[in-house]
Amino acid sequence: MDLGIKQRTYVVTGGSSGLGLAGARALVAEGAQVAIVARSADRVAQTVEQLGSEAAVGIVADLADATAAELIVSAARAHFGRLDGALISVGGPPPGSALETTDDLWRAGFEATFLGPLRLTRTLSQVLPNSSGPNTGTSGAILLVLSTSARAPIPDLAVSNGLRPGLAGLTKQLGDEFGGRGIRVNSIAPGRFGTDRVASLDARAGDPAEVRRTIEASIPLGRYGEAAEFGSLAAFVLSPRASYLTGTLLTIDGGASRQF
Description:
Elements: E1 9-13, H1 18-29, E2 33-38, H2 41-51, E3 56-60, H3 68-80, E4 85-88, H4 103-125, E5 141-145, H5 158-179, E6 184-190, H6 196-205, H7 208-217, H8 227-238, E7 249-252
Parallel strand pairs: 1-2, 1-4, 2-3, 4-5, 5-6, 6-7
């Protein structure tokens, strides 16, 4: 299927590794251009080299910084001349119980995980293409990367459990507020994928190989997801092929979640 995103441009935050990188690869494979955003200058440069300088530009920024949204949008538009959407992913908050998580960690998590994506979404809404009539697929699209903690708590991830559900609710409200302009806002809740982040969580819980085997046994599809599977879904949701999809939280977790 041709997703219809050739020559379109997307911001991809957290785009130098993990699921963000998988999303960027999927977009570029469909002919789109991407502005890769991450905190490490070296990793950003390596990612741009992998994707090709014609298809990608790197922007070093931290979404927890109040000035990052304006910097990202300005730099991406200056390089490509347009913006059509964004895949907004941030690194997962540090693990820990609700009682042992300090106020400083809660504040840092809120800035990076909640307020940073909201600032970027708000800034993007001012520049994305929009339509005053029925959505023809030419309008902008934003996809927030959350976690299955948006649907049900995950043990030892108090900050994620506290903040992700709020972003899921905000997705619905943003879909309402931007809908009149044809700008779509959705979020996606990935379950267990074979990323470095998940590997570190597995190691925290015990022997990583044994933890993975135990968790895989509880997943109906019997395995962790592959990053490319996430990337394919993200690219579709951002494309005109999903032009009637907004205000929705999609789950991609091999069937592990018990919610409908």
